């Protein structure tokens, strides 16, 4: 699947956080599930609704309703607003799908397909216990076991990134790195001259957490791209240390007028604190969002 086409986006100059109104849940079919690297798995979905889906931004997130292990997905009732997390509560517990949030990696309207990448943190299908005793959440369990023909529910949400700033920094861990690549692809389509003023900081356990070839492909295109390596429990501290190092060196990234810091909650917050307190970026110009929370589901 090539990069998402320019025509698939609602707008090209995203000056404010996008919103989407009137979204509903629809059923999609898994058509492909591949391991991109030891810590990254890609699922491709197909649905007629993807032909008409217009993305609000390159890092648009969505809700994925996944069937319980060993069960077939039951199509959900139409969603008319309210608490999306409680929408499936009318189903018996043994048939109730789990809900997790992911971001669009690429959309192909012509084929009616959409793919997204999931950080598996090195967990393989063989590591999963049939009784759930491995403590993996529904998202990881489904991702590792998904096969072509499996059905899921798809709930489109909206993007978070704003693209108006002349200079900006994107900070990510393994879970949010796919969004960084999607953002850079979008900028290369609509405003390629801006890439040279974009800076990227990735904090991962190892190269196996990242899409193969992405770092080498984008490093010469952007202002700078740094990869820091640290175990889970030290990634927040590692990210903050990298930002302090950039500030001490007077790196061009420190002139950023906008920052996007997403990933595990403690990492995102540590970056926000350093960007505001150390770099002097306005709190209004720092988008920090927990993609996940170590040890428990994201609320």
UniProtKB/TrEMBL annotation:
Lineage, uppermost ranks: Bacteria, Bacillati, Actinomycetota, Actinomycetes, Mycobacteriales
Residue ranges constituting the FAD-binding FR-type domain according to the UniProt record: 23-164
Protein name: Putative iron utilization protein
UniProt-listed CDD domains: siderophore_interacting
Pfam families: FAD_binding_9, SIP
Matches recorded under InterPro entries: FAD-bd_FR_type, FNR_nucleotide-bd, Riboflavin_synthase-like_b-brl, SIP_FAD-bd, SIP_fam, SIP_rossman_dom
GO molecular function: oxidoreductase activity
Organism name: Corynebacterium otitidis ATCC 51513
Gene this chain is encoded by: viuB
